[in-house]
Amino acid sequence: MAITRWFVFSVLFILHLTRIQANSRRDGIPKIVTGEEITDLRALVALPESECEVIAGVTAYPGEVTGTACVVNTLDNVSEMRPGEVLVAPMTSPYHVPAMGIAAAVVTDEGGILSHAAIIARELRIPCIVGTKDATRRLRSGDSIRVRAVAMNGTIEPTEGLEKP
């Protein structure tokens, strides 16, 4: 299943790169994709949505935590974070560090083991799962969740019921 998903992703990405090359300026410099074009690119290369209640990602720092999710989609929402909640964000930046300092765990849609969220979580020694692709879509603030960040593969599962995408 995972191989098929990555194959589809790879083919779509190569097709998009071919389209970018075709749209490049005549001097051979690729076009920089911004704004609505980046949204279109993300939609083009989006992986199929999972039917499973469990959200999976890559463990950046191990640990297991049960707590309440706090979804922070914008920097305006950072102040909503309460001590002991699980920070769920598309990605983190230095502006998220105060919230990360009081979080029980960190979950991000994007990133890898060298991302900002992963590095700061290791410094703070709190469980961290990155690269989930859809945690901010599938979780809502106030959801009761269990974060299991074990060797390589991390999962986020409901302690009640997760909303289906």
Short descriptors:
Glucose Oxidase, domain 1; 5 helices; 2 domains; alpha/beta
List the helices and strands and how they pair.
Blueprint: H1 2-22, H2 36-44, E1 55-61, E2 63-71, E3 86-89, H3 97-102, E4 105-108, H4 116-124, E5 128-130, H5 135-138, E6 144-149, E7 153-158
Parallel strand pairs: 2-3, 3-4, 4-5
Antiparallel strand pairs: 1-5, 1-7, 2-6, 6-7
Structural commentary:
With 165 residues, the chain is of the alpha/beta class. The chain has 2 domains: 2-44; 55-158, Glucose Oxidase, domain 1, CATH 3.50.30. The chain is 30% helix and 24% strand. The chain has 5 helices and 7 strands, in the order ααβββαβαβαββ. The chain has helices at residues 2-22, 36-44, 97-102, 116-124, 135-138, and strands at residues 55-61, 63-71, 86-89, 105-108, 128-130, 144-149, 153-158. A 7-stranded mixed beta barrel has the order 1-5-4-3-2-6-7. The longest helix is centred in the first third of the chain and has 21 residues, at 2-22. The model has no long low-confidence stretch (mean pLDDT 82).
Query: Which strand order spans the largest sheet, edge to edge or round the barrel?
Result: 1-5-4-3-2-6-7
**Which H/E pattern describes the elements?**
HHEEEHEHEHEE
Structural class by sheet pairing and helices: alpha/beta
Overall radius of gyration: 17 Å
Relative strand content: 15-25%
The average pLDDT is: 82
Q: How many structural domains?
A: 2
Q: State the distance separating the first and last CA atoms.
A: 19 Å
Spans with pLDDT under 50 lasting ≥5 residues?
none
The geometry reads as: globular
The largest β sheet comes out as: 7 strands, mixed, barrel
